[in-house]
């Protein structure tokens, strides 16, 4: 199936869903929530850092989505709309708990020599060390712990892209940013994560 | 071929997300053939991407049924309320 055909079918499915949601058809709501709920809940849990708060965030956000569904203009998918609602509610919660941290400088800035753009000596020493641990639970735990410790601006793009597997358009719609901006943010987030994981592995 | 390692590092995410144009990929991989530091750095990014996609072994999922049950109850309560309002307006 060609990409534009697939897009047309997806758009039609989305339009039928939107109509059902706006009319308040319980089976359509059930279908949309069952399909997207686990991902939304996982995303919220990683954003706010604990299960109980995440459950409250998702409940509040989805009830608000239900009450404001008339405002949905169809310019993005329902999935992006739901992620945007969860994200906004999660950020309120993060701000309330003061877990909102400025994203800081890109660690990559310190790795290179100014004059020729080559790596500085001993800028990182992770080669081989982590690769041997790829299948180990310990590495997975370190990576996930460090994702959870990232400032929210980095955490949210990595959660959507890597953990929940949203595509570029869905993430851009959910975060209301351009594809170019998203690319930069993802690269910066991975770079910060790499530095954090490396530090954590070397500490152990 | 990219001459500078900082140019290569800027392109890593585009490469691992398969968003880079052919010429970028060509210049990137030819640099990697001669630069072990950039190869290591690239491999670390790939490793992090794979690890991020695996489930966290230490994490218990939140209670999906409880949350969705609550939301569906709210949806149905609201729908019932609207039906009552419509009936009252109609009578």
Textual characterization of the structure:
The complex is a heterodimer of chains A (204) and B (91). Chain A is an all-alpha fold. In chain A, 68% of the residues lie in helices and 0% in strands. Chain A has helices spanning 3-23, 26-48, 51-67, 78-96, 137-149, 152-163, 168-175, 179-203. In chain A, helix 2 (26-48) runs parallel beside helix 4 (78-96), helix 3 packs across helix 4 (78-96) and helix 4 crosses helix 7. The longest helix of chain A has 25 residues, at 179-203. In chain B, helix 1 crosses helix 2 (22-34), helix 1 (5-16) packs parallel to helix 3 and helix 2 (22-34) packs across helix 3 (36-53). The chains are: A mainly alpha (204), B mainly alpha (91). Chains A and B meet through helix 2, helix 3, helix 5, helix 6 and helix 8 of A and helix 1, helix 3 and helix 4 of B.
What structural keywords apply?
heterodimer, A: 204 residues, Arc Repressor Mutant, subunit A, 2 domains, 8 helices, B: 91 residues, mainly alpha, 77% helix, elongated
Short description:
With 204 residues, chain A is mainly alpha-helical. Chain A has two domains: 3-96, Rna Polymerase Sigma Factor, Chain: A, CATH 1.10.1740; 107-203, Winged helix-like DNA-binding domain superfamily/Winged helix DNA-binding domain (Arc Repressor Mutant, subunit A, Orthogonal Bundle). Helices cover 68% and strands 0% of the residues of chain A.
Please bin the fraction of helical residues of chain A: 55-70%
- Report the uncertain regions of chain B: none
The domain count of chain B comes to: 2
CATH fold descriptor of the largest domain in chain A: Arc Repressor Mutant, subunit A
Q: What are the segments of chain A in which pLDDT stays under 50 over at least 5 consecutive residues? A: none
Q: What is the string of SSEs of chain A from the N terminus onward?
A: HHHHHHHH
Number of strands of chain B: 0
Instruction: Tell me the strand percentage band of chain A.
Output: under 5%
Structural class assignment of chain B: mainly alpha
Q: Using the 3D structure, state the CATH architecture of the largest domain in chain A.
A: Orthogonal Bundle
How would you name the oligomeric state of the polypeptide chains in this document?
A: heterodimer
Q: Given the helix and strand composition of chain A, which structural class is it? A: mainly alpha
In CATH terms, the superfamily of the largest domain in chain A is: Winged helix-like DNA-binding domain superfamily/Winged helix DNA-binding domain
Rg of chain A (CA only)? 20 Å
Largest sheet of chain B: none
Strand content of chain B: under 5%
Q: State the helicity of chain B in percent bands.
A: over 70%
Largest beta-sheet characterization of chain A: none
- Look at the structure and give the mean pLDDT of chain A: 79
């Amino acid at each position: 199936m060609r990409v534009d055909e697939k897009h047309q079918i997806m758009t039609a499915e989305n339009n039928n869903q939107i109509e059902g949601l706006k009319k308040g058809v319980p089976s359509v709501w059930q279908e949309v929530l069952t399909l997207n709920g686990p991902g939304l809940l996982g995303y919220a849990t990683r954003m706010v850092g604990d299960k109980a708060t995440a459950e409250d965030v998702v409940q509040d956000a989805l009830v608000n989505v239900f009450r404001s569904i008339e405002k949905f203009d169809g310019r993005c998918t329902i999935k992006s709309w739901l992620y945007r609602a969860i994200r906004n509610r999660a950020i309120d919660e993060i701000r309330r708990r003061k877990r909102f941290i400025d994203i800081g400088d890109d660690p990559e800035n310190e790795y290179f020599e100014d004059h020729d753009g080559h790596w500085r000596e001993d800028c990182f020493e992770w080669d081989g060390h982590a690769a041997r641990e790829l299948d180990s639970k310990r590495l997975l735990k370190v990576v996930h712990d460090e994702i959870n410790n990232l400032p929210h601006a980095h955490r949210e793009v990595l959660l959507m892209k890597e953990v929940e597997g949203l595509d570029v358009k869905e993430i851009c719609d959910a975060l209301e940013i351009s594809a170019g901006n998203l690319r930069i943010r993802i690269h910066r987030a991975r770079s910060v994560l790499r530095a954090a994981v490396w530090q954590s592995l070397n500490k152990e | 071929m990219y001459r500078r390692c900082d140019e290569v590092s800027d392109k890593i995410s585009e490469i691992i997300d398969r968003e880079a144009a052919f010429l970028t990929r060509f210049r990137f991989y030819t640099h990697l053939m001669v630069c072990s530091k950039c190869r290591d750095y690239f491999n670390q990014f790939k490793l992090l991407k794979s690890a991020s996609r695996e489930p966290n072994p230490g994490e218990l999922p939140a209670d999906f049924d409880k949350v969705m049950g609550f939301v569906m109850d709210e949806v149905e309560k609201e729908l019932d309320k609207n039906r009552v309002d419509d009936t009252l307006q109609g009578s």
